[in-house]
Amino acid sequence: KHILHPSADTTARTFTIPANSAVAFDIGTALTFINQNGAGVLTIGITSDTMRQANTGLTGNRTLAANGIATAVKLTATEWIINGTGLT
Fold first, then answer.
1. What long-range pairs does 74-78 form, CB within 8 A, spacing at least 24?
2. Phi, psi at residue 4, to the nearest 5°?
3. Which of 11, 14, 22, 68 counts the highest number of beta carbons within 10 A?
4. Do residues 32 and 70 lie in contact, with contact meaning Cβ atoms separated by under 8 Å?
5. Within the chain, what is the greatest distance between any pair of CA atoms?
6. What pLDDT does 65 receive?
7. DSSP code at position 78
8. pLDDT exceeds 80 at position 1
9. From CA 24, how far away is CA 85, in angstroms rounded?
10. Rounded to an integer, what distance in angstroms lies between the CA atom of residue 60 and that of residue 20?
């Protein structure tokens, strides 16, 4: 699945991955976030679970710039890893 922040929406938004206790995505689930050209800044949030940025190991919310694409993959019941272009 992919989640699109369209160019028609120039407002900064936060899309949040819910806690496993609220929505138990299957391990291996991949969510792709796309921030289209001209769209406002997109924050990819996480609640009580852990989201690590690939390569850096940094945890917590990530920011996706316009023209950016990032994919988060669920590794365990409460851990995700995310990587992409335009992701900080």
1. 74/25, 74/26, 74/27, 74/28, 74/29, 74/30, 75/27, 76/27, 77/20, 77/24, 77/27, 78/19, 78/20, 78/48, 78/49, 78/50
2. -105, 130
3. 68
4. yes
5. 35
6. 95
7. T
8. no
9. 27
10. 15
> Quick one: pLDDT at residue 31?
97
DSSP assignment of 4-52 equals: EE-TT--S-EEEEEPPTTT--PPTT-EEEEEE-TTPPPEEEEE-SSEEE
What whole-number distance in Å separates Cα of residue 42 and Cα of residue 10?
10
pLDDT digits (tens, 9 = 90+) for 31-77: 999 999 988 899 999 999 999 999 999 999 999 999 999 999 999 99
Amino acid at 74: K
